[in-house]
Amino acid sequence: MSRGRPVVVGIVLGRLGGVYVMLFSPMVDVLMFQNPLATDAPEWTTLLPSHYATNVLFDAVFTSSVDAWDFGAAVAYAVGLLAIGVLVFYRATDVE
């Protein structure tokens, strides 16, 4: 999980709301929407944080190669969230 997402969620929802969202949203994402044993996931689940990371994980475990696109997308998603988190944290703690 990227460090940027907790910063953004905590600033938007507050401490308690941010904690609940950060505890339950990854579980719902991975267990319900990225579960390979479930039925086919809707197309919009590709926007969720664990989609590409789950694909890379299953490729690494069950095949002899990893799809470079999925790996790059997982890294780009994490870096993008980190950049957004740094920007939001900087703006929220900016002292003039």
| Parts with pLDDT < 50 across at least 5 consecutive residues | none
Distance between the termini: 32 Å
- Note the total helix count: 3
Following the backbone from N to C, one meets helices and strands in this order, namely HHH
Q: In one word, what is the shape?
A: globular
Name the beta content range.
Answer: under 5%
**Helicity level:** 55-70%
Radius of gyration: 15 Å
Main sheet attributes: strand count, strand direction, barrel closure = none
> Which structural class matches the secondary elements?
mainly alpha
**Mean pLDDT rating:** 81
* Number of beta strands: 0
Detailed description of the structure:
With 96 residues, this protein is an all-alpha fold. The chain is built from three helices and no strands. It has helices at 4-33, 51-62, 68-92. Helix 2 (51-62) packs antiparallel against helix 3 (68-92). The radius of gyration is 15 Å and the shape is globular. The mean pLDDT is 81.
What secondary-structure arrangement, pairings included, does this model have?
Layout: H1 4-33, H2 51-62, H3 68-92
